[in-house]
Structure formats: structure tokens, C-alpha cells
Amino acid sequence: MSEPSDYEAGSHVGADRVPGSREERTLAREVRGYLLGLGLAILLTIASFWVQQTHAIYSSGIAVALLVLAVAQIGIHLVFFLHITTASDNANNILALAFGVLIVCLVVFGSLWVMLHLNHNMMPMDRLLQMQR
Amino acid sequence: MSTPALPLAHDPAFGPFGIALGQASGHGAGGPAPKRIVVGYGFWIFLLSDVIMFSAFFAAYAVLFKNTAGGPSAHELFDLRNTATETACLLASSFTCGMASLAVGVRSQKWTQLALLVTGLLGLAFIVLELREFIGFVARGAGPSRSAFLSSFFTVVGCHGAHVSAGLLWLGTMMAQFYAKGFRQDIRHRFLCFSLFWHALDIIWVAIFNLVYLVGTLPPELLP
């Protein structure tokens, strides 16, 4: 490994580290971080596939459980693979992410909310087709 | 002078969100941010816009999910074993991509090329599995033109597949550039963007396998 100041792992979004401001980054520690992320991601993936087929939990909650597991695994990926952290040098990335999450929630839940109500109020499709003839 | 390992909310040296006061990029003593920070930030913005595009496709899938027009439903079509294999391929390739960025960090040509090769092969395996699934659907008369449900399914999953294919091309050019030009700074910046892209694709896939495949194959009475 070259001198620490020259050491930069490519996948860090904002690793503008002031020397000594944080514990030293060594290759072994970096590899351990990725392995931990991989292990957690595998666990959550297995949990998702298990929850989908199980009868062990309240069955109406399975869809919600899958949503929660997906969000958890996305969080794991963001922290361990994309290195989005709460560090001061990451504030811009975090704020952009927060804005992105806001838009995603508006698009997805807004569309569902509006469209399910439209479906609810719409004339049945066969009658609609009859009228168009 | 020692600053804490992680800025705490009550530390007077750090403002809200842990921004180091007086060291903010482009202001005061900190000066402008290093180029790789700016490059990573810009590419992160692009990735978020990509995620927003995908969120519209997810919304379309969720809305159109039940509109099978008498055609096959998700429950009849999806083979979860195939989905699990695809998931394993993409997760492993995300990990080896991380290993590649560590190899770039220590300037090891051999390990960089090896890790990128494994990443590419796993990505290729993913694409092959997905294409096989798509071809199987079309052969069973369940192509994208069959129903609104299948149109939205092929849009969201196919768009992700197109991203992975483009990523494979990018990966090939990164291997060639590291090989021919070495670990030059501009090439490391390109690789930083590539690794962000590849990890982000895995994040999209996490949403796809959970919400499109696993929720999609739940018995209809369990769906909200």
C-alpha cells in the first residue's frame, strides 16, 4: 500500500478525509466493511424470500414486511457499498439523497393514491367498451 | 488538534447535519472541494435522477399489476428460483466491484483486472438469466404487448437490464483504460463513477426482486 494520504478507494462518494480526523483506513478494515455489508445483504435477501413463502407471520402483513425488508437492504447497500454516511464531508450527498427519496415517495405513493381512487370511481371496463361501440 | 472520529450533534465545531463549520466546501478555510468529491457528487445527482425515473416505472407497475387482460398473471409466470439466482449474481458482482475499488486504491493492476473481470462475468450471467426469462415469457405468449401488467413488467425489469448491459460495456472500457493508461487520476474518477453506477443498479434490483417478483407472486388475497 502506498502512503496513507494517497490511498483512496474508488467507491467512496465523499471520502475527503482530513488526516487524523478519523481512525486510520487500512485495506483489511475496508475489506471487512464490504464483507459485513455483503453478509447483511445476504441475510436480508434470504429473509425476503423466506417471508414470501412462510406461514409463520400474519399473512396480510407479508407485503408490508417485504417493503420494509427492501428498504432495510437498500439502506445496507447505501452505507456499506456506496459509503453514504453522516460524516461532514457527506452532507451534500445526504441532502441530495433526501431530496431524491422525497420525490420517489411523491411519485410512487401519489400515483397509487390517485390511480386507486380513479379505479374505484371508474365505470366497469365492459360497459365502457359497450358505450364506445 | 484532534477532531472527533464522527462529528456529534452537540459538538460546537459542527453545524446541523455535521457540517464542519468554516470547512464547508468552497467557503472559508476549506477552499474548493477536491475534484473527486465534485465528480462523485455530480454523478450521485445523475444516479438519483435515474432512481426517480425508475420510481415512475415502479408506480406504473403497481397501478397496472392487476390488469392482466385475461392473460397470465405474475403468480403464474414468475419463477422465483430464477429470481434468486439473478439476485445472487448481482449481489456478488456488487461485492467484487467493491473489491475492485479497493484494488484501485492500492494500485494493484492484477487485482483490479481480476475483480473487474469477475464483476463483469457475474453481470453477464445476470443478463443471460434475465434474457432467458424474457424469451421464455414471449414464447408462452406473454410478451410486453399481451397486457398492461406485462407492459409495465417488461418496462421496469427491461430498463434495469438495459442499464446493466450498458454497465457491462462501461466495465469493459474501464478494464481497458486501467490496462493501457494505468491508474491516472482522471481514469480513477471515471472508475469512481462506474462503481457508483454498479452499486446503484444493485439497489434498483433490490427493489425489483422484493416488490415486483416477491410481492407480485403473493396469493391475490394477500395483496393490499
Distance between the termini of chain B: 56 Å
Secondary-structure-based class of chain B equals mainly alpha
Helices and strands of chain B, in order, run as HHHHHH
Radius of gyration of chain B: 22 Å
Tally of separate domains of chain B = 2
Report the mean per-residue pLDDT of chain B as an integer.
88
Percent of residues in helices of chain B: 55-70%
- Kindly identify the CATH topology of the largest domain in chain B: Four Helix Bundle (Hemerythrin (Met), subunit A)
* Largest sheet descriptor of chain A: none
Shape of chain B: elongated
- CATH class designation of the largest domain in chain B: Mainly Alpha
Unreliable stretches of chain A, pLDDT < 50, 5 or more residues?
A: 1-21
Tally of discrete structural domains of chain A: 2
Which bin fits the share of residues in helices of chain A? 55-70%
Rough shape of chain A? elongated
Count of DSSP strands of chain A: 0
Compute the CA-based radius of gyration of chain A: 23 Å
Describe the fold and architecture:
The complex is a heterodimer of chains A (133) and B (224). Chain A contains four helices and no strands. With 133 residues, chain A is mainly alpha-helical. In chain A, helix 1 runs antiparallel to helix 2. Chain B is an all-alpha fold and 224 residues long. Chain B has two domains: 32 residues, no CATH class; 190 residues, Four Helix Bundle (Hemerythrin (Met), subunit A) (Up-down Bundle), CATH 1.20.120. Chain B is elongated, with a radius of gyration of 22 Å. The chains are: A mainly alpha (133), B mainly alpha (224). At the A-B interface, helix 1, helix 2 and helix 3 of A face helix 1, helix 3 and helix 6 of B.
List keywords for this structure.
heterodimer; A: 133 residues; mainly alpha; 2 domains; 4 helices; elongated; disordered N terminus; B: 224 residues; Four Helix Bundle (Hemerythrin (Met), subunit A); 6 helices; 0% strand
